[in-house]
Amino acid sequence: MHVIFGGAFNGKRAYVEQRIQGRNVQWLDVEADAHVLLPNIEVIIVFGIENLLESKSKELLEKMEKWDEQAEVLVIATEIGRGIVPMDASMRKLRDDVGRFYQQLFTKADSVTRIWYGISQTIKGVGQIENLH
User: Fold this and answer.
1) How many CB atoms are located within 10 Å of the residue 10 CB?
2) Across the beta sheet with 111-116, what order do the strands follow?
3) Which pairing describes strands 72-78 and 43-47: parallel, antiparallel, or unpaired?
4) Buried (b) or exposed (e) across 91-124, using 16+ Cβ within 10 A?
5) What is the pLDDT of residues 55-108, one digit of tens each?
6) Does the predicted TM-score (pTM) go above 0.85?
7) What fold is seen in the domain 2-82+91-123?
8) Per-domain boundaries in the chain
């Protein structure tokens, strides 16, 4: 599983679209789709996870791990934890819940790429040295 994350409108989708050219792809919006995989899919692109309720995040993570056995899974994750902390308690809770879910997701992912204004930086993956100090 490969997670691509960054701020809104920073080029995550363009990065993914460049990687998947010519492949059989299924886009899954976690809010809207029933999460049924089509046959003969090579790549599953999961998006909208920043809007996911905490109660459904564990279930989604389990599904994505199963899908990863069938096809390459790319997860587009929008960073919502930076910047000004929201005054509204429900928005702060959402921000915290998404942060905890991203920690679990990034731990399970084989690779993680941050996109910052169109520039990609692999922060976890093949060839990366983990600092254990």
Assistant:
1) 18
2) 25-29, 43-47, 72-78, 2-6, 111-116, 119-124
3) parallel
4) eeebbebbeebbeebbeebebbbbbeeeeeeeeb
5) 788 889 999 999 999 999 999 999 988 888 889 998 898 889 999 999 999 999
6) yes
7) Rossmann fold (3.40.50)
8) 2-82+91-123
